[in-house]
């Protein structure tokens, strides 16, 4: 493991990294708040992780429960609990895979598609309002930085 040199440039780098950590913490808190608000807008008892699962189903259509859980990095027991709740709230239906009776196929209900679509439209409107004054070039730079953000997100936890 490399040690941190003590030159002025390195102190500046360390300070800049600390600023990034602060902004990442703020970003994660805001994302969690948005997921919570979005979940409640779909169903008053829906948890943010349930919204995340449902949103993925609405975006991509029918999916195997296990595959979706892996894609979203959701533990099997959490996925199972959330699927039961989503089914109870009549936001998805659960069927059996004709090729593998053990596998569960999840399909969002038309009500879920309608609600998630409305929530996404509201969130998109808010994003447009915030970014309205940015130039197309600034938006492209921001988009590129967000693309690089994936590696950063893997390196830190939401609790940072």
UniProtKB/TrEMBL annotation:
Domain of life: Bacteria
InterPro entries with a match to the protein in the record: HTH-type_Bedaq_tolerance (IPR052526), HTH_MarR-typ (IPR000835), WH-like_DNA-bd_sf (IPR036388), WH_DNA-bd_sf (IPR036390)
SUPFAM superfamilies reported in the protein's UniProt record: Winged helix' DNA-binding domain
SMART domains tied to this protein: HTH_MARR (SM00347)
Molecular function in Gene Ontology: DNA-binding transcription factor activity
Residue ranges annotated for the HTH marR-type domain, each copy included: 44-139
Gene3D superfamilies referenced in this protein's UniProt entry, alphabetically: Winged helix-like DNA-binding domain superfamily/Winged helix DNA-binding domain
PANTHER family, alphabetized: CONSERVED PROTEIN (PTHR39515), HTH-TYPE TRANSCRIPTIONAL REGULATOR RV0880 (PTHR39515:SF2)
Protein name: MarR family transcriptional regulator
Species name: Pseudoclavibacter terrae
């Amino acid at each position: 493991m490399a040690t941190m040199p003590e030159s002025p440039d390195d102190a500046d780098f360390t300070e800049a990294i600390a600023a990034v950590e602060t902004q990442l913490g703020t970003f994660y808190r805001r994302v969690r708040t948005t997921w919570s608000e979005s979940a409640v807008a779909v169903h008053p008892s829906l948890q943010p992780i349930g919204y995340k699962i449902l949103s993925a189903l609405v975006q991509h259509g029918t999916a195997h429960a296990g595959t979706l859980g892996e894609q979203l990095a959701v533990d099997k027991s959490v996925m199972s609990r959330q699927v039961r709740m989503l089914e109870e709230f009549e936001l998805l239906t659960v069927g059996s895979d004709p090729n593998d009776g053990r596998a569960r196929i999840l399909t969002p209900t038309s009500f879920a598609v309608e609600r998630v679509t409305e929530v996404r439209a509201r969130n998109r409107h808010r994003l447009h309002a915030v970014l309205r004054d940015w130039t197309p070039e600034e938006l492209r730079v921001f988009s590129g930085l967000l693309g690089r953000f994936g590696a950063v997100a893997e390196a830190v936890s939401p609790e940072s």
